[in-house]
Amino acid sequence: MRVIMALLIGLAAPAATSQELVFDEEATAACVAVQQDDLARQRCVGRSANACMELTDGGMSTVGMAGCLDREWSYWDMRLNAAYATVRTQARAMDREIAEYSPEAAKQADALRDMQRVWIVFRDRFCDYERSLWGGGTGGGPASIGCLMQETARQALYLESREGMG
Question: Which of 8, 54, 69, 82 has the greatest number of beta carbons closer than 10 A?
Fold first, then answer.
């Protein structure tokens, strides 16, 4: 999916591909770090992408928006992968502990893996639908990438909230 989006961004406006994006994830990270609840943290998503659009020459173009959104999507994807690895490790440890007294209990690590696999399909289909709402127009690319960023962030924040609960 990321390769397809990168190709779409690159093909959309060849003159803009040399454009230097001014992206720094700090606006989003700093906002998330000080929030007390999940809803408030969710409202931080997109801050760095929006700052990038404002600071980048051509940042409000379709290509600029897509590039800035893609950068923040990558940031959230890294957070999601780190949280998933942590939660999966914790789930495996919990599975070993529970197996000692209840060997027939459902395995948390397997359930987490299965949930994540289904979530990826859901996210991709959901964002395909968001793109379709643009009827093939140029806004579909940024809409799709923005959706992927939002949904990936939502899942990353969810998994981060599970860290240490095992």
Answer: 69
Per-residue pLDDT of the chain (166 residues; tens, 9 = 90+): 554 444 344 444 433 444 699 999 999 999 999 999 999 999 999 999 999 999 999 999 999 999 999 999 999 999 999 999 999 999 999 999 999 999 899 999 999 999 999 999 999 999 999 999 999 899 999 999 999 999 999 999 999 999 877 5
Burial of 139 (0-12, 13-18, 19+ CB in 10 A): middle
Cβ neighbours for 8, distance < 8 A, ≥ 6 positions apart: 66, 141
Q: Helices 26-34 and 62-99, interaxial angle, to 10°?
A: 40
Q: Which position has the token pair 């968001």?
A: 130
pTM of this prediction exceeds 0.90: no
First to last CA, the chain: 32
